[in-house]
Amino acid sequence: MNPVSLTFLGSGDAFGSGGRFQTCLLIDAFGHRFLLDCGASSLVAMKQRGLDPSSIEAIFVTHLHGDHFGGIPFVLLDAQFSRRDAPLLIIGPPGIEHRVHEAMEVLFPGSSRTQQRFLIDFTELSPLTAIRVGPLRVIAYPVEHFCGAPPYSLRLECNGRTIAYSGDTEWTDQLLEVARDADLFVCEAYFFEKQVRFHLDYRTLARQRDALKCKRLVLTHMSADMLAHVRDAAVECAEDGLVIAV
To answer: Which partner from 16, 123, 179, 205 sits 20 to 30 angstroms from 219, CA to CA?
Structure first.
């Protein structure tokens, strides 16, 4: 088995287009497990695939929209009731700890003040500053997506392999740095050709494909419009359950 792999636990948009789970990507790297984003449906997606949530060491969040971080309150409550004892790192944009606590209070009043049986460590990402988490070296790149806090794309390096992930964003040349020479670039393509603020479309990505200089490009976070045009795309498109060896 390849020591680094990525599994699309959720490849959908905020609205469950195509019956897909919201954004949640699992990275297995040399015996360590991490999530990239954790949409509201992520706990269900993990349990459907028989994945023990307590095996997740860290959750990396690209931006503070519910379909990318809204599953964290459910993961934390599940961990409490399942008697998790391993620490959990939650890593994301400035304000992530406050936003998670707010979400917990809206969904389950009092839950953010409950004394957990395990350590929860919130860490804020700084742009263009590398951090190390287990075997991963992670760099956050500022992108363009309104969410009330700085949005990021992420570049994760592990033992000479690189996974790049756009998060949600309209086109910005910052993506060229995120994707450059990456073994895998997972990129949102919300629409097929319609251009809207704060999101990418397939036509724009197709025009930029050579400039991205990544070895493999896989599209995700697709709306009903994009899903209706998957067969017209000359780029690989994700689906829930897809596993990629990196």
So the answer is: 123
Asked whether 104 and 73 are in contact (CB, 8 A), the reply is: yes
In the chain, how many domains are there?
1
37, 67, 183, 201: the active-site residue: 67
- Looking up residue 211, the CATH number of its domain turns out to be 3.60.15.10
Instruction: Provide the pLDDT for residue 60.
Output: 98
The whole domain housing 108 covers: 4-245
Angle of helix 72-81 versus helix 96-107 axis, rounded to 10: 70
* Structure-block tokens of residue 165: 């992930």
The token pair at 77 is: 């409550």
67 has catalytic annotation: yes
| Residue for token pair 């790192």 | 89
Write down the pLDDT at residue 154.
98
Provide the β-strand partners of residue 131: 138
